[in-house]
Amino acid sequence: MIVGTAGHIDHGKTSLVRALTGVDGDRLKEEKARGITIDLGFAYLPLDDDFTLGFIDVPGHERFVHTMAAGASGIDIALLVVAADDGVMPQTLEHLAILDLLHVERGLIALTKADLATPERLAEVRAQIREATAGTRLDGVDILPVSSTTGLGIDALRQRLVDEARASGERSADGRFRLAVDRVFTLSGIGVVVTGTVLSGEVHVKDQVLISPSGLGARVRSLHAQNRQVEVGRAGDRCALNLAGDGISKDAIHRGDMVVDPFLHAPTDRIDARLHLLPGEPRPIGQWFPARLHHGSAEVGARVVLLEGEQLLPGRDADVQLVLDRPIAAATRDRFVLRDVSARRTMGGGAFLDLHAPSRQRRTAEREAQRAAFAIADATTSLVALLDAPPFVRDLRAFARDRALSAVTFDQIVASVDPLVIEAGDERVALNRAHWRRFVDGLLERLGTFHAENPDVQGMGREKLRTASQPKLPPAAFALALQHADLAGRVVRDGAFVRLASHSLQLSPEREAQWQRVAPLLAEEARFRPPRVRDIADALSRPETEIRQLMKFAARVGLVDEIAHDHFFLRATVHEMLLIAADVAAQADDGRFTAAQFRDRLDNGRKVAIQILEFFDRQGVTLNHGTLRRIQPRYLDLFGSGS
Ligand SMILES: Nc1nc2c(ncn2[C@@H]2O[C@H](COP(=O)(O)OP(=O)(O)OP(=O)(O)O)[C@@H](O)[C@H]2O)c(=O)[nH]1
Ligand SMILES: [Mg+2]
């Protein structure tokens, strides 16, 4: 459980944490010298039982608001500090806005330096605070007067924080491990240590993790949670991880990086999000507005692309696309804050929706439906909505990854949603049952129509069929879908073509007429040595290409087989020749026969006889052992009238 301070410079945040915990968060020499906080400070308050309250102390200086934003992301309880002498000041308001934009749900307000104020003044500042917090998540929370100098109210505040922490309970450790790095250092004899808040999941000693976005792999050598050596760190813990691995060094990891379960690593620089512009902003924002994005402990330059309307008015919300200067590691529904480029004010913030948003076609109705589905808090409901939003096809792996869902939770979600899932390599492509039905019915209907319109075409090109199908599946998934029980047996893949199983090729009337003139030339005495394409063309005074096309087509329909280039035999003749070969084999020693023996029966010349046998070899009907061949009896009906 982590308490994070917030409030204007010099209002007594660090002093208060020291009074509450006995720890001075200002570690840096410069901090001591200047009496201001520059970087995040950390302190721990071990309670009687196994429970430790962690504190993150942030700087109040207006130049360090980015550091405050990094510290505030991942805290459970806000401790907003307002000095009784000074009252509500600019960074009181800005920090308050940031806490609210980050959806920090719990908090208490400390009215510090109470020793310096009269009861009237205290009442006055209370009223200022009530006004400032109205409508925020800290609206109505208790305001406790304290003095770090005299000790007034410190014990009461400490007790209230402990009660708050106990009431909010453990954060659910469900989900995959993510830690937002806020410090990196080396300890002699130990090595590289990173610290940060665990945003989700658990981490164990010996776990393999990744630094994202860099992608560096590391092993957790040891870990501390709330300053104690432990075997496991959980969501809501402040952890220090001792990391080891190739390329792992103090300079290779930075504040803003995430340490993640390797499954989650998918850096992104283009995110669709819901943005709220603070009501106090002086101007609306327009297209391509430049800003600083704060997410977790990261800060990165960003451009805002409006996805609704041409400008976003102060106080309003809109879907936007955030185009980042460099990739970050994030999860769907993570909160973010936007500040202006000169880092003077906080402008707004919101939640991430689609982490891998398209750069084109981003304002369509389809995209709007998808973003609405991403926005749903409950993962199961969100998945149901996504599967019912165009394109009606989702990679479940990407969904689980972007939501940082644990394998167990995700399996439960998939079991309850029960979509149709196609496992295609790295992807788990899912459709809901209704859209799968639509896909199956549409595909069968499309093929039926195609065959009716093109009776003499073998089938539809697979890629053409895929792109015409609704929903449109990715290529690998489409190929697998054709083998699904709902389609297998009804559609047949024929090389690059797909056809209905019931479809058989038919000659068009013109081709039929041509064929009637060609067929007699291949039959009777000529059948074992039929004319080649050129000879047929000569005989009929037709162009050679026309005859070749006709013969190729006749081969597809199963009327002829192309034994050698441009040399077609009637299918019935091929069958007859195969039976002859079988007979020759039956009469030979060991069933092995020579090409000469075969040629003698057909009387068609050595070259042609060998071409026929080589054709049989290719079909697997004969087995060639040098000069001798054997028959494979199980293929004897390959050219029979049934096929
Ligand atoms: N009289 C009085 N002085 C206080 C009290 N708390 C803090 N101070 C003084 O106020 C000054 C600022 O206190 P800090 O705790 O450093 O303030 P801070 O909010 O941490 O300041 P930044 O981190 O720089 O924003 C110091 O000189 C403190 O001694 C208090 O309760 N009473
Ligand atoms: Mg301080």
Cα shape: elongated
Q: Report the uncertain regions.
A: none
Rg of Cα set = 38 Å
Biggest beta sheet summary: 6 strands, mixed
Bound molecules: guanosine-5'-triphosphate, magnesium ion
Distance between the termini: 74 Å
Query: What is the tally of beta strands?
Result: 33
| Approximate strand percentage | 25-35%
Structural class, from secondary structure content?
Answer: alpha+beta
Q: Kindly state the mean pLDDT as a whole number?
A: 94
Strand order, main sheet: write it out. 2-3-1-4-5-6
Number of helices: 19
- Share in helix: 25-40%
Overall description:
With 643 residues, the protein is an alpha+beta fold. Strands 2-3-1-4-5-6 form a six-stranded mixed sheet, sandwiched between helices. A six-stranded antiparallel β-barrel has the order 7-8-14-11-10-15. The protein has a six-stranded antiparallel barrel with strand order 16-21-19-18-22-23. A hairpin with a 2-residue loop joins strand 11 and strand 12. Helix 3 (65-72) packs parallel to helix 4 and helix 7 (365-375) runs antiparallel to helix 8. The radius of gyration is 38 Å and the shape is elongated. Bound molecules: guanosine-5'-triphosphate (GTP) and magnesium ion. Guanosine-5'-triphosphate (GTP) binds at residues 9-15, 35-37, 59-61, 112-113, 115-116, 147-149.
